[in-house]
Design a protein that fits this description.
The chain has 114 residues and is mainly α. It has one domain. 86% of the residues lie in helices and 0% in strands. The protein contains six helices and no strands. Helix 1 runs antiparallel to helix 3, helix 3 runs antiparallel to helix 4 and helix 4 packs antiparallel against helix 6. It starts with a helix and ends with a helix.
């Protein structure tokens, strides 16, 4: 039962995170590393990907691939977490907590429910 709750919480979290890319795009533009082209399109693609991965987690037949895709996405997003320090220098503590604590917990969570 706890694992089911964790699964549905993960689905909801990633679905809402994906929607948030469209609701608050300026936040994501600011943390997109400057060496990447077109923060606008990167934000849209990231939002769609998070929504699609959340949907994959709903169905038992696609849950394993969904969880591995979420893990891969979290690893791919590490540069934006590191770039967060430059984009928001006043929030260094939050940046470190996000990178060193939250990010590994999210990877573990996706692995566990997958």
């Amino acid at each position: 039962m706890i694992k089911d709750i964790a699964l549905y919480a993960l689905i909801g979290a990633y679905f809402l995170a994906g929607v948030n890319h469209f609701w608050h795009p300026k936040f994501y533009y600011k943390i997109t590393p400057k060496w990447l082209p077109s923060p606008y399109w990167i934000n849209i693609i990231a939002g769609v990907i998070e929504i699609v991965f959340a949907i994959l987690m709903i169905f038992p037949q696609t849950r394993l691939i969904g969880s591995w895709l979420i893990i891969a996405m979290l690893i791919a997003f590490i540069p934006s977490h590191i770039y967060f320090f430059e984009a928001y220098p006043e929030k260094k503590l939050f940046g470190w907590i996000r990178l060193v604590v939250i990010h590994p917990l999210l990877i573990g969570w996706a692995y566990w429910v997958g």
